[in-house]
């Protein structure tokens, strides 16, 4: 059993060494960029890295094979470029107007890119000599890399609640935050530190000046989405800030957060199926294969025990090559070694090992 635990521990440690997210955020402190940073921070796992501002090349240099790259910046000219550090760039490389990439960037394989700026996935000249920002950075990477972005204007959203006062006073607080969206031009509330002024403290300064003793609380950051129609006037030079109107920067209607219904991931469904299969099989086998023994003239039913540590260890150790093989195959199919696949495969392998060990114990009891 100790060997199994050591193996599991080692694989969990190795999971943190692969397939991380590298998140590069422009330091312009606009509502769009800050809201999107807040969302990505809420999705980060152990091993993921994030850089706000500074040199984009330095951030790109943190990439390794199989990683996910997320670039958060403003887009320009319906896809002709992006802004980093206040300067507009048309692509990546050593040419005029291009942002330099680190040495060896073109040899990185199986990188998944999310270019989060307005029009990043749009071909600006409709099939001419130019191409989308997503295509440009994927072309600068090595084999197996792919990317996604926004075909239209992009919106990033922060949701909040206002408490205290009367219903009328709370509505006045919401109206004040919609009218003065400068509070979003501050770091998201989940940025480590935290900074002296965040979106929440800036929003509180606005509603706190109103009657009713109102309190605002940032509750969530939502995944950015495409906007088919342009935002209302006054939302930034490029429209990317998207901080005006219901559902645009302010989240759901009246800024009230609505929780999404949780769903199971693919691994969650697989593990749930295996657990249900195991529970059902164990229950049926214990009922059908109960051994009858006679003690002092009385017939007693002896059911298969639920667990035998020695038997389980033998089966689990024999399953290790199959678990490793499954991890390798899945990694080849998905183009990288991802922590969720390692953890899911190990857990599934242990569940199957338990079921096999129980069936063998039951057959041995029958004999």
Low-confidence stretches: 12-17, 230-263
**How is the main sheet built?**
5 strands, parallel
Query: How do the strands of the widest beta sheet line up side by side?
Result: 2-1-3-9-10
Percent helix range? 25-40%
SS elements, strand count? 14
Q: Average pLDDT, to the nearest integer?
A: 81
Order of helices and strands: HEHEHEEEEEEEHEEHHEHEEHH
Strand percentage lies at: 15-25%
Helix/strand class? alpha/beta
N- to C-terminal separation? Answer: 26 Å
Radius of gyration from the alpha-carbon trace, in angstroms:
27 Å
How many DSSP H or I helices? 9
Structural shape: flat
Write the layout of secondary structure elements.
Elements: H1 2-15, E1 21-25, H2 31-42, E2 49-52, H3 56-60, E3 68-72, E4 74-76, E5 81-84, E6 87-89, E7 91-92, E8 98-99, E9 112-116, H4 133-140, E10 146-148, E11 153-163, H5 167-179, H6 199-207, E12 215-227, H7 266-288, E13 291-295, E14 298-302, H8 309-334, H9 339-366
Parallel strand pairs: 1-2, 1-3, 3-9, 7-8, 9-10
Antiparallel strand pairs: 4-5, 5-6, 11-12, 13-14
Helix pairs in contact: 1-9, 7-9, 8-9
What would you note in describing this structure?
With 367 residues, the chain is α/β, with parallel strands linked by helices. Among the domains are: 19-148, no CATH class; 266-366. Helices cover 38% and strands 19% of the residues. The chain is built from nine helices and 14 strands. It has a five-stranded parallel beta sheet, with helices on both faces. A hairpin with a 4-residue loop joins strand 4 and strand 5. Helix 1 runs antiparallel to helix 9 (339-366), helix 7 (266-288) runs parallel beside helix 9 and helix 8 (309-334) runs antiparallel to helix 9 (339-366). The model is unreliable at 12-17 and 230-263 (pLDDT under 50).
């Amino acid at each position: 059993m100790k060997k199994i635990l050591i193996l599991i521990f080692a694989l969990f440690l190795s999971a943190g060494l692969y397939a991380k997210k590298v998140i590069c955020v422009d330091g312009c402190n606009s509502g769009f960029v800050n809201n999107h940073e807040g969302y990505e921070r809420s999705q980060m796992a152990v091993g993921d890295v994030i850089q706000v501002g500074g040199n984009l090349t330095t951030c790109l240099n943190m990439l390794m094979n199989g990683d996910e790259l997320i670039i958060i910046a403003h887009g320009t000219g319906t896809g002709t470029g992006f802004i980093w550090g206040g300067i507009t760039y048309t692509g990546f490389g050593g040419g005029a107007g291009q942002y330099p990439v680190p040495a060896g960037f073109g040899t990185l394989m199986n990188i998944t890119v999310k270019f989060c700026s307005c029009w990043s996935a749009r071909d600006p000249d409709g099939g001419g000599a130019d191409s989308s920002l997503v295509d440009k950075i994927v072309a600068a990477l090595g084999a197996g890399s792919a990317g996604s972005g926004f075909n239209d204007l992009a919106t990033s959203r922060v949701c909040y609640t206002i408490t205290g006062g009367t219903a009328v006073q709370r509505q006045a607080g919401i109206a004040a935050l919609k009218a003065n969206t400068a509070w979003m031009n501050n770091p998201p509330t989940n940025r480590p530190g935290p900074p002296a002024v965040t979106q929440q403290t800036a929003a509180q300064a606005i509603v706190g000046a109103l009657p009713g003793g109102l309190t605002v609380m940032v509750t969530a950051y939502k995944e950015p989405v495409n906007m088919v129609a342009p935002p209302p006037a006054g939302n930034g030079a490029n429209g990317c800030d998207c901080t005006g109107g219901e559902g645009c920067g302010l989240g759901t209607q009246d800024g009230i957060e609505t929780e999404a219904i949780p769903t199971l991931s693919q691994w969650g469904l697989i593990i749930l199926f295996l657990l249900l299969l195991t529970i059902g099989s164990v229950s049926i086998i214990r009922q059908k294969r109960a051994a009858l023994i006679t003690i002092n003239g009385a017939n007693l039913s002896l059911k298969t025990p639920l667990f035998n540590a020695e038997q389980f260890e033998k089966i689990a150790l024999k399953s290790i090559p199959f678990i490793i093989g499954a991890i390798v195959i899945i990694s080849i199919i998905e183009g990288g070694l991802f922590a969720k696949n390692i953890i899911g495969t190990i857990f599934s392998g242990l569940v199957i090992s338990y079921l096999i060990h129980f069936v063998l114990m039951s057959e041995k009891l029958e004999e």
